Amino acid sequence: MSETVLIVDDEKNMRWVLKQALESAEFEVMEAVDGKEALASIAEQTPDIMVLDHRMPAPDGMEVLRRVRADGATFPIIMLTAHGNVQTAVEAMKAGATEYLTKPFDLEELKIAIDKALKMRNLAAEVERLREELDREYDVEGIIAAESGMLDVLDNVRKVAPTVATVMLYGESGTGKELFARAIHALSERSDQPFISVSAGALPETLLESELFGYEKGAFTGAVNAKPGRFEMANGGTLFLDEIGDVSPATQVKLLRVLQERRFERLGGTRTVEVDVRVVAATNRDLQQLIAEGSFREDLFYRLNVVPLYIPPLRQRADDIPRLVAHFLEKYKAGKRTLTDEAMEALVTYQWPGNVRELENTIERIIILAHEDLIGLIDLPSEVRLGGALCQTTGTGMILPDDGCSLEEVELDLVRQALDRAGGGVPKAAKLLGLTTKTLEARMTRLGL
């Protein structure tokens, strides 16, 4: 994708020389004969960099520089002048110039200055992207798997990652689809390039389009500055499109074009942007059913579904649960805290409708709320302790589903059952519940037993 340079100089010959030199270096060149035309040009289309003459009819280069920066534009600006001195250079740099060159200058010197300024801009953008990534919570420790189905998926990840093929990840909410997308990126030849993600289901249609493709200044109310979209940010790297099944038909058409042609226009812009992006999409919905209902384009489906990968839900990965628990205990700094066999068995047998995300939240919660280093059955959330069943008690002492009970009622039932099984012996009942005798006695007092 060629970078756009705006040349602003009132000398026709100088503009011609600069244009020839920059076009030979494969830059796309725009021209402005004075400061007024430069400001109008920027308002219509934001350049990647501007080469700005200092001495021009009003507004001169310094005034243009100040106005552009006052409007919030961040693209690099190289100031040129035939009347350079230290004071003018300092003034330009304070006003927001990226570099300062004095006429006459060598064209190679200008090219080097432009290249350096663009690299600094890209580095700043990457730093900002990484800062945003650090603000988000996601597992960077890798994918934990021992169950055969998951190992098969990981084997396919290793096979597809080095290619440029588009990947479609299928899986229930909370199964870790973004983690798999990151693994595909990390194992690819694009690993040193950006990984950018966007959740289609979290954004309204109009906002999603601007997030994906970016917009020019003035494209809509509130667009005070131009902004690149996620496709541009991911150029050379990987773009993760989560919840692709929630994308509107209108946006589907634009996505199809990008996947076919690798080019698009920003909202409110006319310049075609070309990108080299590897797309990984994900959904928890049945796209074939959406196609049958007419809400998802069949041609887009085939563009995305080049390599489909199916991530199994946690309820089908019982062998992985102890390893995941150990990982989350370490992640949330549980210290010496461990789980009793009864507590671990409850975690393994629970169906986990929220998948790995629910398991992680559960472990974090019990670490915060547990009073002892040994985490027992009583410390688990009631729905996990009872395998999803809440507390209707039969004459046999079995706890059956009922939507209307409180956590205290569940706890009371469990303590009573443990005491019954222990023949009334508190030490034995405490052992059954994975508690110390002292802790159980305190809870019995609180429960009125």
Report on the architecture of this protein.
The chain is an alpha/beta fold. It folds into four domains: 4-131, Rossmann fold, CATH 3.40.50; 148-312, P-loop containing nucleotide triphosphate hydrolases (Rossmann fold, 3-Layer(aba) Sandwich); 314-387, Helicase, Ruva Protein, domain 3, CATH 1.10.8.60; 389-449, Homeodomain-like (Arc Repressor Mutant, subunit A), CATH 1.10.10. It has 19 helices and 16 strands. It has helices spanning 12-24, 35-44, 61-70, 86-95, 107-135, 148-160, 177-186, 205-213, 230-233, 249-261, 287-293, 298-304, 321-331, 341-349, 355-369, 382-385, 407-421, 426-433, 437-447; strands at residues 4-8, 28-32, 49-53, 77-81, 99-102, 167-170, 195-199, 238-242, 263-265, 272-274, 278-283, 307-310, 338-339, 374-375, 392-393, 399-400. A five-stranded parallel beta sheet has the order 2-1-3-4-5, with helices on both faces. Helix 4 (86-95) links the parallel strand 4 and strand 5 (99-102). The longest helix is centred in the first third of the chain and has 29 residues, at 107-135. The protein starts with a strand and ends with a helix.
Write a concise synopsis of the structure shown.
The chain is of the alpha/beta class.
For the record, the CATH architecture of the largest domain stands as 3-Layer(aba) Sandwich
Query: What is the spatial order of strands in the main beta sheet?
Result: 2-1-3-4-5
Which overall shape is indicated by the principal axes computed on the Cα atoms? Answer: elongated
Q: Regarding CATH, which class of the largest domain?
A: Alpha Beta
What Rg do the Cα atoms give? 30 Å
Helix content bin: 40-55%
Low-confidence sequence ranges = 133-141, 388-403
